[in-house]
Amino acid sequence: MKKSYKIEVDCANCADKMEQAAQKTKGVKNAVVNFMTLKMTVEFEDGFDAHEVISEVRENCKRVESDCEIFI
Amino acid sequence: MNKKQKLTLARIIIAGVLLIVFNFVIDLPDRLAGALKPVLFLIPYFIVGYDILLKALKGIKNRQVFDENFLMAVATIGAFCLAIFYTGDYLEAIAVMLFYQIGELFQSVAVGRSRKNISALMDIRPDYAMIEKDGKLERVDPEEIEIGTIITVTSGEKIPIDGVIVEGHSSIDTKALTGESLPREIKTGDEVISGCINLSGVLKIKTTKEFYDSTASKILDLVENATSRKSKSENFITRFARVYTPAVCYSALALAVLPTIFTGDFAKWLYRALTFLVISCPCALVISIPLTFFAGIGGAGREGILIKGSNFLEALSKISCVILDKTGTLTKGVFEVAAVHPMSEDRQAELTDENNLLHLAAHVERYSNHPAAIALRKAYPNEADDCEIKNFQEFPGYGVQAVINGKEIHAGSSKFMDKIGAEWHKCYKTGTIIHIAINKIYAGHIVISDVIKNNSFEAVQELKSMKIKTVMLTGDSEETAHEAAEELKIENYFSGLLPSDKVSKAEEFLKDYKTAFVGDGINDAPVLSRADVGIAMGALGSDAAIEAADVVLMDDDPLKIPRAVKISRKCMKIVKQNIYFSIGVKLICLLLGASGLANMWLAVFADVGVMVLAVLNAIRALF
Question: Going along B242-320, which residue ranges are E strands?
Answer without folding.
Answer: 305-307
